Amino acid sequence: MVSRAEEFQELRPLLFSIAYRLLGSVSEAEDAVQETWLRFAASPARPESVKAFLSATVSRVAIDVLRSARVRREEYLGPWFPEPLLADPYQDPQRSAELADSLSMAALLLLERLSPLERAVFVLREVFGFGFPEIASAVGRSEAACRQLAVRARRHVEAGRPRFEADRAKREELAGRFLDAFREGNVDGLTELLAADVQLVGDGGGKAPQWAERFTGAQAVTEVLATLMPLFARIAAQVQPHPVNAQPGAIFRDRAGGVISIWAFDIADGQIQNIRTVSNPEKLGHLAPVADAWTALREAERAADA
């Protein structure tokens, strides 16, 4: 007979994926999954459907966390982005498109506009395909109320749904060209890949060097990138192409391999539409050892003065 621990471990990837989409935080999602295990282990009776029980439990835990997190995010210094995720542990071939689209930075930021209940209903229904009876149990509302929440959430999401290049290979190829141009200091090569209204936005949280919160337009973004290229070159930074939240992206490391920042790209119509960077060290620790970005910046400045 399969033990509770074995059943839980089998479903852990699904539970994390639900919690991450609700919270936009790897650390908070992991905490929600752990709390779900504690409640499952302490439950005196074995649920009829372990998957339904655990999914409902992790959703309820995440909703409670999300309600308090919204206040903290309103007080956050500068733009707030989700903690970057390099790979989704949960795979479902039948829902691969929904899973990938819902994981992007753009989609997660769009979900931030929903109420906690709307967000939970939308994620459980539209992303993971749960039925309304299961969703009603998870969020503590009637099926009719959940259907209304789903309609409202879907309307909000459809109104702001991000556009992505349909061909994933083309997205990766264009991002690769962009990163090659960045490494080589090829300003013209960068400029031709940027949409006219491209945006560059950074999340440093006041805990890492931050050039500014937001730049809009190809010229402004090119000027910022042209300033950054020699700084990264002076510290021998490594630029590692890597998917970020199921979209093209890159990991920037110092010469010792510590993570300096994560970049994520939105690509559509053959051009880069958005560049989002995360350099807040509190959001990078789950990836690898984090570099001291302030030390790296001082090293780059000393090299420039030498």
In a few lines, what is going on in this structure?
This protein has 306 residues and is of the alpha+beta class. Helices cover 55% and strands 13% of the residues. It has a 6-stranded mixed β-sheet with strand order 2-1-6-5-4-3, with helices on one face.
Structure description:
The protein is of the alpha+beta class and 306 residues long. The protein folds into two domains: 4-160, Butyryl-CoA Dehydrogenase, subunit A, domain 3; 168-305, Nuclear Transport Factor 2, Chain: A. It is 55% helix and 13% strand. β4 (249-253) and β5 (259-268) form a beta hairpin.
Major sheet size, sense and barrel closure: 6 strands, mixed
Would you tell me the overall average pLDDT?
A: 93
Strand content: 5-15%
Output the CATH topology of the largest domain. Butyryl-CoA Dehydrogenase, subunit A, domain 3
Number of helices: 12
Number of strands: 6
Computed structural class:
alpha+beta
Gap from first CA to last CA = 69 Å
User: CATH architecture of the largest domain, please?
Assistant: Up-down Bundle
Low-confidence stretches: none
* Number of self-contained structural domains: 2
The shape, in one word, is globular
State the share of residues found in helices, binned by percent: 40-55%
Please compute the radius of gyration using only Cα atoms: 21 Å
Protein name: DNA-directed RNA polymerase sigma-70 factor
Organism: Amycolatopsis deserti
Keywords: DNA-directed RNA polymerase, Sigma factor, Transcription, Transcription regulation
Family: Belongs to the sigma-70 factor family. ECF subfamily.
